[in-house]
Every structure is written in structure tokens, then in C-alpha cells.
């Protein structure tokens, strides 16, 4: 059975993509700890990050670095937060978010009801910083 992330990747459920290639996607979470909170997810369904092939894990981290630089730029954050949890969805993913303090590292602090407008605005800012279109594909 497909994970919710696979359904987002396949377009069965809407997602706000900020990056996409054949192996890895990045899209905004619907429950952010801060505006711009992005998930870096392999296209392949891999349950635990420790199960990912080394090449895939390396590529996920390259994308996380790119997104991290974009969240710092787009949201004027002093740091980019990076977190791996993985209990809520059995599909490996990295959380990257603008970090102004340590509160973002506690996923109990998520906004459970962000407005669609705030999510759309955050996605637009990140796409502009990364150089991608509304599908997450590079345009530069």
C-alpha cells in the first residue's frame, strides 16, 4: 500500500513542491513548525532512513542542503533546522525548516491549521530562492 508521501509524489494528493528530480522531492509539510518547513523525501518508498542506499541518502542530503540554504535566505533565519523523526509516516524523510531558536526541533510545536495562503506564500518564496517552478522542477 502506498504511503501518503507516495500519493503526494504521484499527484494523487496535492502537494506544494519546491524541488523535484527522478530520485528525490521536496515539498512543504501541511503542519509546519515554521513557515517554509519542508520535507525531503525519496521517490522510492524507503521506511527508515537507515535503510536507504548510500547514494540515495547522499542525494537526499544534497537536496536538504539546497533547501536549507533557501530557507535561511527566504525567511531571514539565522539557521536551517534539520531533523529526522519518521514515526508519523513510514517513508524516510528529512525535515528542513527556518530555525530562529530550538522550538522547531520539537514537532509538538507544529501549526496544525496553517492557512493555504501562508503555505502558498512559503512555497513561492522557496521556489524563488531555489530556482524552481510550481512543480519543483529547476528553471535556471
Automatic annotation (TrEMBL):
Biological process, per Gene Ontology: nucleotide metabolic process
Sequence ranges assigned to domain HIT in this UniProt record: 4-107
Placement of sequence motif Histidine triad motif: 91-95
Superkingdom per UniProt: Bacteria
InterPro entries hit by this protein: Histidine_triad_HIT, HIT-like, HIT-like_sf
Protein keywords: Hydrolase
GO molecular function: hydrolase activity
PROSITE patterns per UniProt: HIT_2
Cleavable signal peptide: none
Active site: 93
UniProt-recorded name of the protein: HIT family hydrolase
Organism: Corynebacterium lactis RW2-5
